[in-house]
Amino acid sequence: MKQDSKLTMIVLGLALILFGAACVTQPTSNSNSEPGAIPSPSSSPTSTASPTVSAAPVTLPVLDAFFGSDETFTAELKTKLSLTDDQITQLRKVAREETAKLRETEAGDHTGTTAAARELAANRVKEIVGAEKEAQLAAFVSERWRVGTDAPDTKNATPPTESLSSTPNAVPTDTRVVVNAPAYRMDVFEGGRLVKSYKVGIGYPEFPLPTGLRSAKAIIFNPTWTPPDEPWVESPSSKVKVGEKVEAGSKLNPLGLLKIPIGSPSLIHGGKSAAKLGTFASHGCVGLTDALAQDFAKVLAQLAGKKLSDADIAGYKKNRSETRQFTLSEPVLVELRYETIVAEDGKLHIYRDVYDRNTNTEETLRAVLDASGVKLEDLTEEERSQVLGALEEMSRDAKGKPDTLATAKTSASPSASPASSPKAIAKTSGKVTRNFKGKKEVVIEIAALKGKGYPAMAVSAGATPKAKT
CA torsion 9→12→13→14, rounded to 10°? Predict the structure, then answer.
């Protein structure tokens, strides 16, 4: 078992999204009000992800993050899954041992696969609780990841699933913010109309954004940051220490001017350079420059029916050492998507499968086309050839390695992946993927899609910056 532990870790520690770095929500001080409860959306449904996107991959670092950040997690393992104290102790120990092996370096590399990490974790958990309980635990953790947690109001943290749809590329008919990670894009919809778009930075592949429906209830200006008890903080190059609060306004504070909690573990926050828009930029959060974060904060407040003026923001900026909370009059829905195939007014965008979720398949393609009333057979021979070639080209992870599960026709089972073999797992490394290798997307003109699909990016200050690739 000790040898097996050495083989797993960063395979894709997909998991540390839950407690990663700058994106861990910290308590605020000097707030002027408390955030309100998450609403019960009654608006028209919209899509959260492609039908072929699997549930959140549960790895041992995911378990470690829940054990460390969610006070109710252990209790519910007992009451809902009927796990014993001994089983929970073993799970906690194994999860922590794996997480402790993670180290972050500037010259990062990424050689593992999600499938390998998922399967190895499943095997370790089965050894402790058995196959039936392992499946129950995976489902339980996946659901918590999807909806997020937002203590102390966790009883209201799960928006009704009726507000989500399996239809790909769905255009909201209500007011909400939509983030599509593979497109590095954040859209603001008001009453079903796209009013603004932003290019954003997303979580590293080892710290990916989750998917699901969240809610923004407050904007925290001048946030402090306390480095979490995670191995990357202890790297030789780190200038901060676990548990030692970094003051607001400090150059070592990665949150920038403001943060917007959208349910733990994720945030939308500033502090990023323009070069980080359109690429990997965070540990599981949506990143903006401070200027764009300020612009987005004003738009978000307006959506909630409350004015946030430039003068208000200037007042917050006068004293960067004072943390202040601006509570939204009405919570605003934030939908996190992972869609690598997007139909958009005469064009088909096929994005790189940066989180190795095996979404660039013919099955997903057909679902996207069907949603716009188009069949794959309706395309010209040249269009079909281009599209299928693009699917293959974009079925690669961030480092240019082919998706281990993707095929031209359908997604395979994770357990069938050759990456699950001991040889494949043994090649993994414990470094974070910072750089992107190869194209990020292929855009193909499709006549049959003219006037159909998801809207093109709305013009905004952050829609078309030159991003580092």
Answer: -160
